[in-house]
Design goal:
This protein is α+β, with helices and mostly antiparallel strands. It contains seven helices and eight strands.
Length: 268
């Protein structure tokens, strides 16, 4: 019995040695392989680090090989993002303005490594892009009157976008879209505009009534002129006599002696 136990123990030890001999290299190979492969997902840029220090090398999306335990890869999202910014500004005539803008932006792929090294990805949009947009909005709005801001909105939008791009480009940020989504004025100014519009409407209505009365008077005068031109002297005399007859009350004049004859004389 003891001999059988010893034989079984020897067999177990032999199996363990064989497994250790086979599995240990496989395990080490697996560890090396796992640390030598890096995957960069779509919409990201891989930044290569050597012993944890950032270098200048970047990787596109896909599977990449690197030196195990020496190099590692940090994935940085460089997809297009959106930032909404509110800003207070003033027009050329110093009217208070409240502006909301929407900015689409992303980190330039070729400058991701420098961006991570010098700026970092933690809230960089609020630290860099946000103040750049506010400064640009105030600078451009101050060049235009309130009326121009409305009638030339496309030009204003383009100027602000160009200024924002120039301010953030040096940081490796690319602005892909910019829009002024809302432009409002102070309550006092809106009231003044409404009163002005009402006054203009009343002025237009008064002008329209005056024009209508003038047209009517001119038409009546023209009609009277045409009638007057069409009357002959004889017809005019007839009308005058007819007017006298229409005004007669039917009573004959009281006279003494002679026959009661009424004489109608035409006006000279």
């Amino acid at each position: 019995m003891q001999e059988q136990v010893k034989i079984k123990a020897k067999r177990v030890k032999k199996v363990i040695k064989i497994l250790a001999f086979v599995l240990l290299p496989l395990t080490l190979a697996g560890i090396l392989l796992a640390n030598s492969l890096s995957y960069v997902p779509p919409g990201h840029v891989g930044v290569v680090k050597t012993f944890g220090a950032l270098g200048g090398e970047t990787l596109g999306n896909g599977l990449h090989f690197n030196l195990p335990f020496v190099c590692s890869v940090e994935n940085v999202d460089n997809r297009v993002r959106k930032l909404d910014v509110s800003a207070n500004a003033a027009s050329k005539e110093l009217q208070a303005l409240y502006v909301n803008v929407s900015v689409n932006y992303k980190i330039k792929a070729e400058e991701v490594a420098v961006f991570i090294r010098d700026i970092g990805v933690s809230e960089f949009d609020y630290n860099i892009l946000f103040p750049a947009v506010q400064e640009s909005v105030k600078s451009v709005m101050a060049k235009y009157t309130v009326d121009s801001l409305v009638t030339e909105s496309e030009q204003v939008n383009a100027e602000i976008a160009a200024l924002v791009k120039a301010k953030v480009e040096k940081y490796g940020i690319e602005v892909t879209g910019f829009n002024v989504t809302e432009l409002t004025f102070s309550e006092a100014f809106r009231t003044a505009i409404e009163e002005k519009q009402i006054a203009q409407q009343e002025l237009l209505s008064s002008q329209a009534r005056a024009d209508a009365a003038l047209v009517q008077a001119e038409a009546k005068a023209e009609a009277n002129r045409l009638i007057a031109d069409s009357l002959t002297p004889l017809f005019v005399e007839y009308l005058l006599e007819r007017q006298k007859i229409d005004k007669w009350d039917g009573r004959l004049p009281q006279v003494s002696g002679g026959s009661p004859v009424v004489e109608f004389k035409s006006s000279p």
